[in-house]
Amino acid sequence: MDISLLSDELKAVIEEFVKAELKKQLSAKDLLIAQQQEEIAHLNEQISSLRKMIFGSRSEKTIYIDPAQKSLFEKAESNNTADTTQDSHQEQSRVKVPAHERKPKRSMDVIYADLPHVEKIIDLPEEKKFDSNGKPFVYVGNEFVRSIICSEPSKHWIEDIYCKTYKTSRPESEDVHFVKPDIPSPLIEHSYASASTVSQIIINKYFAGLPLYRQEKLFKQQGLGLSRTTMANWVITVSEQYLNKIYLRLCRLIVEQKVVHADETPIQVLKEPGRRAQQKSYMWVYSTSKRSDIQIRCFSYEKSRSGERAQNFLKDFSGILISDGYSGYLKVDVTRAGCWAHMRRKWVEAMPTDLPSESSIAATGLGYCTQLFEFERRIEQLTDEERVIERQKIHTTEEELKEDNCETLSAKEILGKYWEWIDSLGTTAGKLKKAVGYARHQKPYLETFLEHGEIEISNNQVENAIRPFVVGRKGWLFADTTRGAEASAVTYSVIETAKANNLNVHEWLNYVLKVLPERFAYDPNDCIDDLLPWTDEMQKWFRLK
């Protein structure tokens, strides 16, 4: 079609239409380019984050604090010159570490004071105890050379149990009666299992993180042909028949506490009815607070991460629940407290790798978190009531701060500056956006500790309890059946509770597995409260020195 034959008016309409279409296409391309650039930036950020995770420092204690945050009363000079700005930047790059007390290092004699000492005397051969004239040397004493720690592999043996049998002395006309002593109840009926062997298997797997297939190889080297299948059956049976009774008691006691920490982590179960082997199940973990009179750790195996799982476990709990920002915990109808360790972690993850970290937004946020943790360390030994007072103090002048002998601002003052700074931030992207979003979304829960002196500002208590499970999972990777997963929940609960109460876990568990078969043989519902790790008797017998 020859456009020259068209009228000027129609030509103008066509040109406008073409321009509009071209403009629309350009806008679409600009939008696509912007989206691709954002995606590229996000992917580069993930690559940098992974590099930092693999090759960089993993400590969250490497911090950068803006000197302007150190005092509530310091104000920037309005007539700064270029030179003073440069000096300020140089000062900002330096981190002032406050003085602190350090525990004295223990000597080796103190560390190993509880180990028995066996003397080994190195003597001259008999033929070398004489001089060249045949006269014997005179013994003058022993010279100390050194001390060494000696060990030997585990020993195994079969204990054949017999009982002496007697018959009554009666006339031959009467029936003969035989008298036998009471026979100890077996740990597992018709089995070679003993308390010492099963407790060793449990400690190896759940305390030391040694999977059963590795234990099988280790036992074989020690002359004991014990298959992983047999060991798994023993552990499951013992957890169901004996340890489960202690576990249920722990679950009842933990919901009676004032404060509970909660967290969850995935677990894979291969043979779970109605589910694929690749589907995730979860191990939920609950812990009493650091300031609680008794220390309890409860693991609960569940098929999903739904908040209803926590709601069901904590249905009788009416205290304060400390957790991370997972929304599932909102289903638990109690007072919620957030975790500042997770908040700090968000800023660490958002720390840039291609810019000076000291001057980044993430470093500023990390600095506020650091101030808060420093303040909490200072008031750690105070009572709950005193901690609330200290946390909520407001200093109107710098003189008041000095009179209180405060190394840092109070928690309320730090939070005031922190939220004001958060509100001042503009548009952010990537991990920085996640950190800012986490702060704004979790604000009500991150402030709960101001009103409650009995709680900590982090969820580290339960994270420390869950760590042995995560480490062990790297070795055994998955649970074969739901019975195995439930047995793991029971056993980890018992082991971690004993650890938290500073017991010699192996000796305590060995004692429990010796006592319970006899008790349950007489009464399956016998009370086991005297065996709980924090009781005076258990502390007296099995507490680590």
What is the overall silhouette? extended
Number of beta-strand segments: 8
| Main sheet overview | 6 strands, mixed
Gyration radius over CA: 34 Å
Query: For the terminal residues, how far apart are their CA atoms?
Result: 100 Å
**Individual helix count:** 17
Mean pLDDT: 85
What structural category do the secondary elements indicate?
alpha/beta
Order of helices and strands: HHHEEHHHEEEHEEHHHHHHHEHHH
Given as residue ranges, the uncertain stretches (5+ residues, pLDDT < 50) are 65-98
Helix content: 40-55%
Strand content: 5-15%
Question: Which descriptors apply to this entry?
Answer:
extended, 8 strands, 545 residues, 6-stranded mixed sheet, two-stranded antiparallel ribbon
Would you mind describing this structure in some detail?
Helix 4 packs across helix 15 and helix 4 packs across helix 16. The strands form two sheets. Strands 3, 4, 5, 6, 7 and 8 form a six-stranded mixed β-sheet that branches. Strands 1-2 form a two-stranded antiparallel sheet. It is 47% helix and 8% strand. It is built from 17 helices and eight strands. The protein is an alpha/beta fold and 545 residues long. A hairpin with an 8-residue loop joins strand 3 and strand 4.
